[in-house]
Amino acid sequence: MQNELVSVIIPNWNGAKTIGRCLESVFRQTYPHLEVIVADNASSDTSVELIEKNFPRVILVKNKENKGFPGGNNSAFKVARGEYYMMLNNDTEMEPNCIEKCVRTINENSRYGSCATKLLLDQHRDTVDAAGIAVYEDGLSIGRGRMEKTDRFNQKQEVFYPSDGACLYRKAMIDDIGLYDEDFFCYAEEADMGWRAQLRGWKSIYEPAAVVYHCHSASTGTYSPFKAFLVERNRLWVAFKCFPLPLLLAGPFYTLARYFYQSYGALSGKGAAGEFAKQFSRTRLIGILIKVYISFFGSLPALFRKRKEIQKRKLISDKEITEIFKKYRLSAREIALKE
């Protein structure tokens, strides 16, 4: 399997400060058969000039507008020739054997559609950013092991889905489940793909020896109203598109439980809600939630069409979906206390 082509796909928007280091780590890889594609989302900085000058082997897709993370990736998929897609944020750096480890591991089972890396925080390299992603019953997802010490995540095992900040996809899986949903723009797009993959019977494997370092939220900021809005709205979209009706009806109760713990976090200064409240007012949080639900209800006609198509192609039972949550979920309290 070492002879199959891997297409390295990097979406970029104003990443001049980080993408050079990212690409240098790509060209240091021990895996020999690579093509490298950067999908630029109409950057206004010097990203494109930097790539053209210093990395002539890169296939540069120049989008005329900012298509977001999903749209950028999709534009790269359309020109990629590989049997695998190595997905990378523009603010990541791979260890030299990362792709080789991922290719070897994903081929241990033909139903492994994706391979999750050990994604570590760049400035705290003993701390996990994501070792795959974990899920919650209202559609929210979060990096598995986020902010925990790396030595707790040294075991190869199946996970719900990778963080697409750094992971390997099998082309056959993408051909089966379809491209990213570009309406997400950014955040939760990998959870959406993860559910579509699970519903079609695909599995994901975590490879702890494939190590990547990540400057977390370098493009959008760690805590911002923009990010808070998209994370909360997009998790509603994930649930509506992919969850069975009984779980969809129960979702608001799970959300209330999560809001309870997040309200505590905002008041006590703990977790992401607490950090947001330190930078912005609690009133701002309430305003974002109102905006989220207005946007969600306005998008229902399109969501109904998407849900119909996804549910029609589902290959697993509702009981198997329940088992997925038993294996890969986080509790409301755990989510609220993650930063």
Q: Overview of this structure, please?
A:
With 339 residues, the chain is α/β, with parallel strands linked by helices. It has 2 domains: 6-214, Alpha-Beta Complex (Spore Coat Polysaccharide Biosynthesis Protein SpsA, Chain A), CATH 3.90.550; 225-337, no CATH class. The protein has helices spanning 19-27, 47-54, 68-77, 98-106, 171-177, 189-199, 225-242, 245-268, 271-279, 282-298, 300-312, 318-328, 332-337; strands at 6-12, 34-41, 59-63, 84-88, 92-94, 112-121, 124-130, 133-135, 141-143, 157-159, 166-170, 203-214. Strands 1, 2, 3, 4, 5, 6, 7, 10, 11 and 12 form a 10-stranded mixed beta sheet that branches. A hairpin with a 5-residue loop joins strand 8 (133-135) and strand 9 (141-143). The longest helix is centred in the last third of the chain and has 24 residues, at 245-268. The protein is globular, with a radius of gyration of 19 Å. The mean pLDDT is 91.
